[in-house]
Structures are given as C-alpha cells and as structure tokens.
Amino acid sequence: MRLQSPRGTQDVLPADAFKWHHVESTFREIVGRYGYLDIRTPTFEDTELFTRSAGETSDIVTKEMYEFRDKGDRSITLKPEGTAGIIRAVIQYSLCPPGVIGRFSYVTPIFRYERPQKGRLREAHQVGLELVGSASPRADAEVIEITYRFYEALGLTGVRVELNSIGRGDCRARFREALLAKTSSLLVEMGDDFRDRVEKNPLRLLDSKDPSVREAIDGLPPITDFLEADSCSKFEELQSLLTESQIPFVLKPGIVRGLDYYTDTVFEVISSNLGAQDALCGGGRYDGLVKELGGKDTPSVGVAMGIERAIIVLDEQGLFPSVPGVDVFLLGIAGAVHTVAAPLRNAGISVLTDPDSRSMKSQLGQADRAGARFAVIAGEEEWARNAVQVRDLGSSTQTEVAIDRLVAYLKAVL
User: Fold this and answer.
1) Residue 120 pairs with which residues in a beta bridge?
2) What share of the chain is helix, strand, coil (3-state, %, to 5)?
3) How many Å apart are CA 303 and CA 287, to the nearest integer?
4) Residues whose CB is less than 8 angstroms from the CB of residue 331 and which lie 6 or more positions away in sequence, other chains included
5) CA 412, CA 407: separation in Å to the nearest integer?
6) Do residues 238 and 244 lie in contact, with contact meaning Cβ atoms separated by under 8 Å?
7) Eight-state DSSP code of residue 63
8) What does the DSSP 8-state code read for residue 393?
9) Is 331 in a helix, a strand, or coil?
10) Parallel, antiparallel, or unpaired for β 44-46 and 75-78?
11) Which domains does the chain carry?
12) What string of pLDDT tens digits covers the 414 residues of the chain?
C-alpha cells in the first residue's frame, strides 16, 4: 500500500514553506513591538487540563479531542488549543505573581478530530497571544489591536473585527433563563443529549447554524442587555479605546466562542474571502481560567490566529512575495567550487553547488530551477588567472571578476 499523509493533515512542501515563514516572521515582528515573549508548551498534556479549561460540554471535549492512554495508563490528549497549556505553565513556574503582568506569544500545532474542510484541518497551526495579570479594558484593546495590526501587516483586505461581551455570573444566569424560556418548546422536541448539553451551557445555541434553533431564538434580546454594571462599563471603555486606536469593529451579539472559560470580552476577526467558515481567528477574556486550573485569581485575555486560514486569504489576494531563490549557483572545476563557496557563504550569500559535478548545461538548468540570480562559473581558464565568470541569469550578461573581489562584487549587485 502506498502511504499517504493522514486525512485532515497536510505536508508543507518546499515550494510553500516560504509562505509559512512569511506569516510567522510577520507575527513575531508585530508582537515584538509590544513586548511579547515566546513560550512553547508540550504537544500533549494530561487530559484533565482540557476538560477543566474547555468545559466538559464543549464540542472540543465531547467530540474533537485526540485522547489516548500512554504506556503508564495515563490519559493524555494532543492539545486542541494553545491557551490551557500556557496557563498551566504560568501556574507551574509562577510566571505571573500578583502585581506582575505577563505577555506571551506562541506558534503551535493544534489537533481536533473534525470534518476536514477549507481552512479547517485535524492538525492545524496557530499563532497567538496571552496577556496575563490585567483586568483593564486596555489589556483587551491591546490584544485586539495587535491582532488587527498583524493582519494589516500581512496586507489582508476585507477584514473586520466583530466584538461582543458575554458578561459574568449574574449576566449569564439571567440570560440563561431568558434563552431557555425562549427555546423551551424546541428543546422538548430535541434528543436528551442535546437538551442536557444546552441546559448546562445554553450560550451554545447562539452560534448554532440549525434553522430551527435560529428561528427559536429570533427576537431574543442580546446578551449585552443583561450585562452587569461593571461589565457594561468596561465594554463601553473597550469600544472607545478601539475607536481611539482606529481599529474598525462592529458589535456582534451572537459571538460566544466555543470554550467555556471565556468571560466578558469575546471577539473574532472575519475575512470576506473564507466563505461560510469566515473566521480568521478568535479570542477574548478568561478571568477565571487561572483559578480553575489551580492558580490564584488572575485576570487574563488572549487570541489564537490560524496560520492555514491566513495563508488561504493571502493566496487568494495574491499578497505573498515572490518565491525567494538562491543568490548564486556555483559551478566549474571541483576544487575551485569548494574554495569559492566558503567565503561567499561566510559573507551571508546563499550558494548552491552540484555535488555530482554534471555538465555545464545540466548545472545551468539546476540554477534556473533553483531560481538563482547569478551563476558563478569557475572554469579552468578563469581559475588559472584567479578569476571567475559571473552570469546574471535574468539578463544573461556575463562579467569576469577577480576572486579577491567576488564577495564585494556580489554584495553590490544582489
């Protein structure tokens, strides 16, 4: 049987790797301006970490986690999202004691067993931020601003921030009563599993695509009508801060996010170029998560941004730079090639050679396929007079250059 990559995964081939480098380097450049530091957590964690953080009724826990027993009979899960592992590390290493604000950035794979579709894979990749230790709306605004600036730096158009607040305990309780009352007749007709899950967390009805659910909740007041006074005040301040920073946003009462740990601010960044699954990323505030995982009460806010989804939009908008080629393909007599290559590479010039020393025609073909800008030819005659031929593969012009001037010459023309 011919082996292939598992369903819901993809290989990043050399022809596409530069796209990933571009997205990741842009992310690191943007977050570095705001003082965020890189953190890396394990690919797998104890299953309990995710059942406690995501919530036992969440789709991630009930349907999507890659959970297995290891050889020590421990329940282990491939991480389905990045935040829980980072908060576990924050608690384990006391990274954010009271009065300290931590700013963390990450690049990570995530694993969810779901139906593969455009921009949604079983092994996907995210870049993300966590700002731990501040309850201020300025922290929310900072995370949203960085997120928007990241997509702006990539050059994406047709992007917008959609914003909501889902309040806290009192708000949720009052909204829950209104939501369950509005959908009581619908729930009677549904199966026991669906009804049990909705009664545990009725907010999940808000982002349902089921027409009968949409019809049942039509006319329901938005959750923002139920906000506590403090949450309402902070949400209004957040909107003012985003306006002040010139971050375009719209209010979207239906945003609730798929994880149980969110409180108050939730948001998504939407692209008009992704079709029905149009969310580039999502995030929000999760003030209870640190305490839920065994730490002290610590307010926090974060965002996770899908790399694959960004690449899809960048491709469709033709925003990737051209595929980077090698600077020089070096060919000629074997001893000369070896001697010349080292000083060029030491000077930061990328160099390809043919280890099999094939014909001049073959090597020039390799240079063309590699996208080399110049061919440096060290033939016997040139080498005898301490020189090489430098051929511009774009214009086909050729110049003889002394060996001791080669680095300076190439630095000037590259």
Assistant:
1) 117
2) 45, 20, 35
3) 14
4) 337, 353, 354, 360, 363, 364, 367, 375, 376, 377, 378
5) 9
6) no
7) I
8) T
9) strand
10) antiparallel
11) 14-168+228-316 (3.30.930.10), 328-413 (3.40.50.800)
12) 899 999 999 999 998 999 999 999 999 999 999 999 999 999 999 999 999 988 776 778 888 999 999 999 999 999 999 999 999 999 999 999 999 999 999 999 999 999 998 888 999 999 999 999 999 999 999 999 999 999 999 999 888 899 999 998 888 888 888 888 877 777 777 766 666 777 677 777 776 777 887 887 788 888 899 999 999 999 999 999 999 999 999 999 888 765 667 889 999 999 876 666 678 999 999 999 999 999 999 999 999 999 999 999 999 899 998 887 899 999 988 888 889 999 999 999 999 999 998 998 999 999 999 999 999 999 999 899 999 999 999 999 999 999 999 999 999 999
Query: Which residues, listed in sequence order, are joined to residue 328 by a DSSP beta bridge?
Result: 351, 374
- For tokens 């949604």, the residue is 120
Residue 71, token pair as written in the block: 């050889």
